Backbone:
């Protein structure tokens, strides 16, 4: 088909000295990251959460939107938003990260969405659990994968497609998986999947299918593009690889002091400084965060906040103006009394540091309860996926004046 | 001062074959543009409006925020948000554009925030007019410039500063200039200047100072960094140049069809197609939009929407879920009855096209009532400011299948 040759090109790695191309820049201008100072907010204000949109944001009418559940089920279901809103309502605070986070820092650099280390965000997603719906439809005994289809349509490496991604049945049946219609207490925004999206806590963003139109149960592994071709960890182009699934542990430093506009190098006044940040993992709870101020030569333990995020609308006044601080109170309960599940949200950490005049490279690394430790050297693969290299925050502490 | 040498470097132009640097990419990952399909919304949904933040988003407490008005005035004023909210309330629909829009497409390329053509957005800003406040403070007879100071703090080309930008007194006294505390019917988001910002309809974004803390009246031209050094149109580094002020006319095409993920080239089915887009100017109303499908070799007139944006919350269902469609009704009136001023908002245009199989380069150019015509060749200057070159949208129309 001529479209293939005309608009799509094969995946490739950048040459050693090749700067970021205009194509990569065009993706970066659309799909933005979390400004790192926004790590200060327990819940990321609307508009600061990272975005990765493969094609165009579709224009969907929430009044006419219908979700179809079909395939290897006893009975197909068709549900509009009103029907979904009548079902049990749950809110979960979930940290999402793009599977390609860190890609632009790899060498050689896979040419795709050029993330540095900011493709993350935490939101409160409200919707109805998926599992009861699948049980209502009645999963066939031969069900293997559940395929989620979005309304976003485009071409990728020559394949014209609606965005589709499959989940193994046991993952789709996890109680935490939501069909979400609200984010931070308001209807989903167009760019976050309005009017309906999937939320799969613990998994990288590619699993959280937006603009959800259809859920199909298959009696085989889904071999569509995003499962079989795109989101796979491969050593080279011929390696079949393994699918990208859960989020590897990562910690980020909220850069202290203030920045230079262009270099983003930080200036920090000498003296005591609380270095803060967030850490998360999709495999298991974060159990340890270590901090370096010398680019990884030495490490010190940070203090983890004991029970997940605590300061809600109080200390972070600006966050209140972003979402809706009334959705949940400071105790993590919804006004109606139901608890917001925060198990899948990032965890705040702090490290007390005395900044003496000089130059420093700050970073942090996370360990989770599964024993995974964030590596200092980036784990390279051809797509630049699940790359949880340690961030580098350059800080200059001038002489006191 | 050591900070200067350590964190800031002089402005420069990229070498002819130099790709986008990691520093430029870091700015692009923070400061995102409007995804061009979002040109479909009369009012840009929250989170899709372009952002340009020089330093960090500051953390301000709206409850404690105070605006000071001082300098060459008869009496200084100190107003908190409650006091500002008690004053007359006005909503204006205003298109904002970054002065650096288009910079990354220039040759040679000024190294700074690397915009392509998407640094634009339209919001409904609600606040209180500035002029009555200045009159209440009493402008001295020797007043020349009014300086607006934000709470965002950083270093730029070696100069540590709070972001400050001055306006000539006659501009500051224009009835349209607002101190805004709401955007699209909700309190300002942190990244848009919460809790208070300036809105100067018709001017590029650098004038709309965010996180506003102080308004000072000077008896001379303001010679601070953002007026005297940064935002100036210069032919070379030694040229003192002229300040960047109002938005030059520009039209953008909402890309038709659907995209390839990586190249963003569009695929469009053959047949009739309404090519749509928006056009704006900060000098005078847009009076004409011309469309090209052959990269500028020939032009045809588009049809302008007769009276500014018309379809509000109705046709663009998703826009309703983003902002608050109840703020103003479809007739452009607020619930209380006051009219939303749309004179400073972009204008929709349409062009009926029959797409035959082939390759096309679409673009559009605007003319305004002041006689300014958008140039096909980019008007180069050393900072890459006010560069309203014509956009290029690559479209492939495959053979019908």
Residues:
């Amino acid at each position: 088909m001529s479209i293939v040759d005309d608009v799509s090109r094969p995946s490739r790695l950048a040459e050693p000295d090749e700067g970021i191309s205009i194509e990569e820049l065009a993706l970066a201008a659309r799909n933005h990251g979390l400004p790192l100072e926004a790590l200060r907010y327990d819940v990321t204000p609307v508009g600061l959460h990272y975005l990765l949109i493969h094609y165009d944001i579709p224009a969907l009418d929430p009044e006419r939107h219908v979700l179809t559940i079909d395939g290897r089920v006893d009975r197909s279901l068709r549900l509009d938003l009103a029907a979904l809103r009548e079902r049990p309502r749950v809110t979960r605070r979930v940290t999402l990260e793009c599977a390609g986070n860190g890609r632009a820092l790899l060498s050689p650099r896979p040419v795709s969405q050029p993330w540095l280390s900011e493709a993350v965000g935490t939101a409160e997603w409200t919707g109805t659990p998926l599992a009861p719906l699948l049980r209502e439809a009645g999963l066939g005994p031969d069900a293997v994968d559940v395929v989620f289809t979005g309304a976003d349509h485009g071409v990728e490496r020559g394949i014209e497609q609606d965005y589709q991604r499959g989940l193994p049945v046991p993952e789709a049946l996890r109680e935490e998986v939501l069909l979400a219609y609200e984010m931070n207490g308001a209807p989903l925004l167009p760019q976050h999947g309005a009017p309906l999206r999937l939320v799969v806590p613990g998994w990288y963003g590619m699993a959280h299918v937006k603009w959800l139109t259809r859920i199909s149960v298959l009696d085989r592994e889904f071999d569509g593009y995003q499962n079989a071709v795109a989101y796979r960890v491969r050593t080279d182009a011929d390696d079949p690889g393994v699918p990208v699934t859960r989020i590897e542990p990562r910690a980020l430093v909220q850069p202290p002091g203030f920045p230079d506009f262009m270099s983003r190098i930080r200036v920090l006044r000498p003296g005591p400084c609380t270095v803060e940040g967030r850490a998360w993992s999709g495999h298991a709870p974060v159990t340890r965060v270590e901090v370096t101020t010398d680019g990884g030569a030495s490490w010190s333990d940070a203090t983890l906040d004991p029970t997940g995020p605590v300061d809600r609308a109080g200390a972070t006044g600006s966050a209140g103006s972003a979402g809706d601080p009334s959705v949940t109170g400071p105790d993590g309960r919804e006004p109606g009394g139901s608890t917001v599940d925060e198990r899948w949200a990032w965890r705040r950490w702090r490290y007390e540091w005395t900044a003496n005049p000089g130059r420093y490279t700050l970073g942090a690394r996370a360990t989770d309860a599964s024993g995974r430790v964030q590596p200092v050297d980036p784990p390279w693969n051809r797509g630049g996926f699940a790359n949880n290299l340690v961030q580098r925050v350059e800080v200059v502490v001038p002489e006191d004046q």
Observations:
- Chain B has two domains: 2-243, 250-309+345-397.
- The longest strand of chain B covers residues 145-156.
- The radius of gyration of chain B is 21 Å.
